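Notes from hallway chat w/ T.B., transcribed later so I don't forget. T.B. wanted the structure written out for a chain they're using in a teaching module, and asked if we could keep both sequence and structure tokens in one place. Agreed to drop them here.
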Amino acid sequence: MTNSDASSNDGAAGTDTADARYERGLAIRREVLGEAHVNRSLAGVSDFSRPVQEYVTRTAWGDIWSRPGLDRRTRSLLNLAMLTALNRNHELGVHVRGAVTNGCTEEEIQEVLLQAAVYCGAPGALESFRVAERVLGELAAERNGAGRA
């Protein structure tokens, strides 16, 4: 990441076009969440939901994830805690995969979810543990399957 990748909060994205911000966001989104996931998400976009998909890609991924102030591992761990607090389990599963891609360990993911349990509540954290365990199991199965191919 370079300083030119920063959001409009520090002036750099103020000179970027919406298209440039979208393309930067799409590239980061693909790096973190994987080509297959992003392709599936984009293929399912309707005319109705296209504006919000473009907004999220441009703003969350293009402006915020590209900022130099936090590395991707830290951003991933923060997302896991926030998604637990919000009880957004589908997005949590997506971001558990992203966290692993960004170098987070199972232990770090577990610790973040435990921290969230204390401050966000046990019911949401219990569900987050279920989601994370399922996704981590899927990733392990994918790795083991890839090793046999």
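Follow-up for T.B.: The CA atoms of residues 47 and 53 lie 10 Å apart. Might be a good example for the class.
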